[in-house]
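Dear H.,

Thanks for agreeing to be a second pair of eyes. The structure we're designing against is below in token form, covering all 97 positions.
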């Protein structure tokens, strides 16, 4: 299974609120790409500029693999509060089996 998507300022990406963007199945590979014009922070439902995993705008894509033993997880994203959104934040998740 492959899941792809994108958020931008007109489809939900926000500098004030965390937005749910992906339910990550166990044993999957996820690639996150940020060209939104602002840094984004990825984490749980309460992700903020202070506690999220930061991906700078224009940075190389970030890839991670979710362990099969940990089960599924839900990811949220929030753009930096001081940022100006000019592009998009996108993702691709793939699973086998």
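And this is the sequence the design step returned. I haven't edited it by hand at all.
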């Amino acid at each position: 299974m492959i899941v792809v998507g994108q958020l931008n300022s007109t489809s939900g990406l926000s500098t004030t609120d965390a937005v749910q963007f992906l339910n990550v199945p166990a044993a999957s590979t996820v690639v996150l790409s940020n060209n939104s014009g602002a840094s984004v922070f990825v984490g749980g439902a309460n992700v903020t500029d202070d506690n999220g995993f930061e991906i700078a705008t224009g940075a190389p894509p970030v890839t991670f693999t979710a362990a099969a033993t940990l089960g599924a997880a839900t990811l949220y994203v929030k753009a930096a509060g001081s940022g100006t959104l000019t592009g998009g934040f996108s993702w691709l998740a793939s699973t086998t089996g």
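Two observations from my side: The domain at 2-95 is CATH 2.60.120 (Jelly Rolls). The mean pLDDT is 86.

Warmly,
E.
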